Amino acid sequence: MFLCLLGSVSYGLVTLAVGVLHIRESARSAGVGVHRALRTAALPLTAGLVALVPLAWALLLFPVYLHGFLAN
User: Fold this and answer.
1) Does residue 51 sit in helix, strand or coil?
2) Residue 21 — pLDDT band, cuts 50, 70, 90?
3) Which of 15, 21, 39, 71 has the most crowded CB, counting CB atoms within 10 A?
4) Helix H or strand E encompassing 39
5) What distance in Å separates the CA atoms of residue 15 and residue 44, rounded to the nearest whole number?
6) How many CB atoms lie within 10 A of CB 63?
7) What gap in Å lies between CA 48 and CA 61, rounded to an integer?
8) C-alpha dihedral over 48, 51, 63, 71, to 10 degrees?
């Protein structure tokens, strides 16, 4: 389970990083502000944020799971 959570954290961070870097690069190359360039990657950025919600829940429950697993 730990490796699944670790992989999910990595995937979520990369998803967000790619979206943010795309927005910054689009803003720089088009010569516009970051807020205006946000429209170019708003959907992938939102998907990355939404994907982190169940991951955060799983990370919160992991200590409880681990304690139950080690107690048996």
Assistant:
1) helix
2) very high
3) 15
4) none
5) 8
6) 9
7) 21
8) -140
